[in-house]
Amino acid sequence: MILELDCGNSLIKWRVLAQDEAGVVAAGVADSAEQLLSALVAVPALALRHSRMVSVRSDEETAHLVALLAERFGVSACSACAEVSLGGVRNGYEDYRRLGLDRWLALVGAYHQARGACLVIDLGTAVTSDFVAADGGHLGGFICPGMPLMRNQLRTHTRRIRYDDAAAEEALHSLTPGRSTVEAVERGCSLMLRGFVQTQLEMAQEYWGADFQTFLTGGDAALVEGMLPDARVVPDLIFVGLAIACPLS
């Protein structure tokens, strides 16, 4: 079996693949290395042979997790690293080492699936977009706050904005003008998100006309999926790129 890890700033996304990489045996999200180990131990008939990971955490945190996996399961984790080029994609940053590894692997994974020009939008805590030309040249991208950051900033800096997550979810059932604070905030943030996505789409059309594919990934992809009916929603896009960065043979 193969363990794949996406170690973000706050959460660790994981999945276990069958040895032939033909299917997902188990998957989940953990908020710590210790919780990850507990979840893995609970996987029936777990027999790890390989592990690969992408981490945006500190070197110390990443090394600690690698050591825990080696001690508990006897696997040595292959960690993706910054590269000038990978899978036919040329890193477009002036300093290639400064492009976030999660973004890098997502756009590599998208190009691998598109085999042509693509727009990659990741809707998580932050929202990122990246443009990859048909020849694999990464043209760069954008970063802006996602729904969690916009919501939390308003809650933090505006004293009278207070509501729970259940109310937030209910408010997003419509995008008509809000008639309560929670509706006004949630729908306003959602419209800002949709406006950003629409701008990215228009830019991609200026570059390539209709000859490109759009990829959506991240936890809030569903918020904009309806406005992009031709987009490919790939929740595990980073893992597609990770397999290219850390092949098993």
Automatic annotation (TrEMBL):
A monovalent cation. Ammonium or potassium. Substrate binds at residues 93, 100-103, 181. The keyword Cell wall biogenesis/degradation does not apply. InterPro entries: ATPase_NBD, Type_III_PanK. It catalyses: (R)-pantothenate + ATP = (R)-4'-phosphopantothenate + ADP + H(+). Belongs to the type III pantothenate kinase family. Homodimer. This is Type III pantothenate kinase. It comes from Zestomonas carbonaria. The gene is coaX.
